[in-house]
Amino acid sequence: MTGRAEEPLPERAEVAVVGAGVAGLSAALGLARGGAGVVVLDRAPAPVPEGPWAATVGLAEHPGRLVAAVGRSAAAAILRFSVEGLDLLAEAGHLRRTGGLALAGSPAEVDEVRAGAAVLADLGVPAEVWEAGRAAAALGGEVLVPGAPARFVPAEGAVDADALVADLAGRAERIGVRLLRGAPVIGIEDAPTGVDLVLPGGRLRAEVAVLAAGWSLASLDRWFADKVHPVRERSLRVDGARPGVVATTAHGFCTLAPDDGGATVRGCRFATPDLGVGATDPHEAVPPVEARLADLARALLGKAATPRSAAGHLATHTCDGLPVLGPVPGRPRLVACAGWNGRAAALAPRGAAAVAQGLLEGRADGVPALMRADRFV
Ligand SMILES: Cc1cc2nc3c(=O)[nH]c(=O)nc-3n(C[C@H](O)[C@H](O)[C@H](O)COP(=O)(O)OP(=O)(O)OC[C@H]3O[C@@H](n4cnc5c(N)ncnc54)[C@H](O)[C@@H]3O)c2cc1C
User: Fold this and answer.
1) Which atom of ligand 1 is nearest to the CA of 312?
2) How many angstroms separate the CA atoms of 270 and 251, rounded?
3) Alpha carbon distance 116, 101 (integer Å)
4) Are both 187 and 40 inside the same structural domain?
5) Over the stretch 64-80, which tens digit does the pLDDT of each residue have?
6) For position 123, which CATH number holds?
7) Which of 21, 188, 211, 270 is the most buried (most CB within 10 A)?
8) CATH number, domain with residue 365
């Protein structure tokens, strides 16, 4: 067990990190390696179980749509950034490179899936089109649209998120990061020589605060209120079938990730916009949503896939679908590190590394301009 809640709050820190998820812990580790004195605060008394993640390149949407939205060179920069993120995970021993399949969820998606392989390859990410039989064999199940080809990206894979969080926390603490759990930040105040983080039991003055608390930032500081928001995701753990690759479908808004004994299928509100309307509690089961997930698991993995347990969480999405990284405009002591839009595996470790480098060296290499907090000026 790391960081006990009863540990006293220090009065001062060089850097305070709010949030001990993958983003906050990765940033803390990078900063401490560079010699900074770091305190991490998390309101939860213990890490929340996350299960297996599908670690995929880019954003949820098909690559062709990304190019149409932001242009070729910005799309290439975003993809490169995410590939670097997967490489970081692999170097740390946390990415199992199974390769990833993008599957059409309906006949309307078939052309986008096929065309996306050429777009990715053109932008520097190796990708192939696989005919349906090969994709089904790699999956250990079935493609969703009979006969439809799939896109295969060798760089993708699966991450055991709970092992990742535990490893990051352990490594951070071993090099001197103070990790305080059960430590909710309830206010952020600019101060003449830093920033004050207000907690129920006192306040911590930091020279700089890294804000890695996900969607909660909307209520913690006004600047984030119109930039980050939660999106409800539900997960279904199935036994009896273990896919050989990770997979995404429904324009990337449903994912499938293998783990040791089976697999987890996930879907978010964007995949089922007509269902679960009004449900904001991630732990509330909405029967039609659960039924869709069970259908998806059986369609992909066959009848052997037996639903075992369902869970939910809130992912952090942003107003323009891109992460928010770096100093908040006009307030250089507040540094944003959030907003992975359901693609935390690749984006959070890489985004956090950039935030740490930015604070240590005054420059953050390779961060696409469209991901920087100052794009909102
Ligand atoms: C069940 C589950 C499945 C997922 N599946 C995938 C997947 O397949 N692929 C993928 O890429 N990503 C996946 N994710 C990642 C997810 O969508 C998020 O993007 C990711 O967890 C974000 O990491 P983070 O560190 O930015 O924020 P979080 O992990 O949300 O961490 C933020 C931390 O801040 C703390 N906090 C919040 N407010 C305060 C406060 N006021 N004071 C102090 N602390 C505070 C919270 O307690 C939390 O620990 C999954 C996550 C979960 C939980």
Assistant:
1) 1
2) 9
3) 12
4) yes
5) 999 999 999 999 999 99
6) 3.30.9.10
7) 211
8) 3.50.50.60
pTM, entire model = 0.96
Q: How far is CA 153 from each of CA 103, 121, 268, 296, 362, rounded to the nearest angstrom?
A: 12, 10, 22, 21, 34
With a 6 A CB cut-off, is 315 part of the ligand 1 pocket? yes
Helix (H, G, I), strand (E, B) or coil at 196: strand
Name the residue range of residue 136's domain.
98-156+229-318
Is 70 a domain residue? no
Residues 6+ apart with CB under 8 A from 354: 325, 326, 364, 365, 366, 367
Residue identifier of the C-alpha nearest atom 1 of ligand 1: 50
Which tokens in the block code for residue 248? 């995404």
Beta carbon of 43 within 6 Å of any ligand 1 atom: yes
Residue type, 350: R
Q: For 306-354, how does the pLDDT look when each residue is reduced to its tens digit (9 = 90+)?
A: 999 999 999 999 999 999 999 999 999 999 999 999 999 999 999 999 9
* 194 ligand 1 Cβ < 6 A: no
Residues 151, 277, single domain; the answer is yes
CA distances (Å), 31 to each of 10, 12, 66, 181, 349, in order?
18, 16, 32, 19, 13
244 is a domain residue: yes
Is 182 within the bounds of a domain? yes
> What domain count does the chain have?
2
Q: Which residue has the tokens 């993995």?
A: 301
Scanning the structure block, which residue is given the tokens 């964007």? 270
DSSP state of 98: -
Provide the residue type at 13 as one letter.
A
Q: Of 303, 318, 333, which residue is a domain's last?
A: 318
CA of 365 to the centre of ligand 1 (A): 24
What are the helix (H) ranges across 140-237? Answer: 161-174, 217-220
Is residue 6 situated within a structural domain?
Answer: no
